[in-house]
Amino acid sequence: MIKSGLLFISILIFSLFNGSGFHDFHLSNSQLKYKQSKNVLQLSVKIFIDDLETALAQRNVESLYIGTEKESEESAQYIDAYLKDVIIISTSDDTLSSNFIGKELSEDLSAIWCYLQFDLNSDCMDLQVTNSLLTEIFDDQKNIFSFSTEEGRKEYFTFDARDKVKKFNCE
Fold it and tell me: How far apart are CA 81 and CA 26, in angstroms?
């Protein structure tokens, strides 16, 4: 049952992120990895560029031309600020601060991968993830989220406008 569910999610993600520049669905893909050896959480977020630019325009940030030769030098700082507002990771002790590592274009040039790192002050036990990425814009937004550890443990979650918070254990 679990394997068939994982297969379905994999096929869904591949088919949805393997299209042309236009899309009439609203989906993001995030991967959170717990690196116990470094005591960090590493987050990769794949988001469609046009959707991200729409979200930033609602914050009065326009003309970033993300992923083009005309891309604004300030785009990374605006993307970082947006992601800090919409993806929040907390432990039982505090809310973690993220460090924006960078971004790169997806192979099909319609999306970008953004990379963030969260340093942990103690061992990772219980996490709460709030993911409201693009839900302020699209009622049908789905945010697929996977969590994995170095030991091979994996969990999968889906966030949407009505279900923005998930709690789980790192161990």
Answer: 21
